[in-house]
Design brief:
Layout (H helix, E strand, L loop, with lengths): L11 H6 L6 E11 L2 E15 L7 E8 L2 E8 L5 E9 L9 H16 L6 H12 L7 H14 L1
Antiparallel strand pairs: 1-2, 1-5, 2-3, 3-4
Function: This protein is located at the 30S-50S ribosomal subunit interface and may play a role in the structure and function of the aminoacyl-tRNA binding site.
GO biological process, one term: translation
Pfam family, one: Ribosomal_L19
Length: 155
């Protein structure tokens, strides 16, 4: 009696030994088929989740920000379309799932935008000059303060 079963083209032991965890920065080389040809494409980012341990359906989620837009991609750990996974950095994290990173990035952008002082365009400056030349006076806080001081000294 012969038993036949299909094995995965992926070296499962090698993928298990990677020890992927949330907080690692990785570069995933995936095979992409276009017009009958196969090429390798790198996807580099932060692992925000690893699910299902080392079983056959294990996955890991990689997040990256490209052109100011956050992108996430879920990779099956034992996919034959993944050529190799390079670990670039390893950060110590206190959480197994880093989903809060999604909101954190948006909060940081909003915080940075608050501090930005929007410069006036030359068009606005030209309008101000025209108002001054027409005889329209623009009050400034300094002039208002001087008037108040004069009023106090008369009393």
């Amino acid at each position: 009696m012969t038993s036949s079963f299909t094995t995965s083209p992926v070296d499962m032991a090698k993928r298990q030994k990677l020890g992927l965890k949330a907080g690692m920065t990785v570069r995933v080389w995936q095979k992409i088929q276009e017009k009958g040809k196969t090429r390798l494409q790198a996807y580099e980012g932060l692992i925000i989740a690893c699910k299902h341990g080392k079983e056959a359906g294990a996955t890991f989620t990689v997040r990256r920000v490209a052109s100011g837009v956050g992108m996430e991609k879920i990779f099956p750990l034992y996919s034959p379309n993944i050529d190799k996974v390079e670990i670039l950095k390893e950060a110590k994290t206190r959480r197994s799932k880093l989903y809060f990173i999604r909101d954190k990035a948006a909060r940081e952008i909003r915080r940075r935008m608050r501090g930005i002082v929007w410069k006036k365009s030359p068009k606005d400056e030209d309008e101000l000059l025209e108002q001054v030349t027409k005889g329209v006076e623009i009050e400034t806080p300094i002039e208002v303060e001087e008037v108040e001081e004069v009023a106090e000294t008369k009393e």
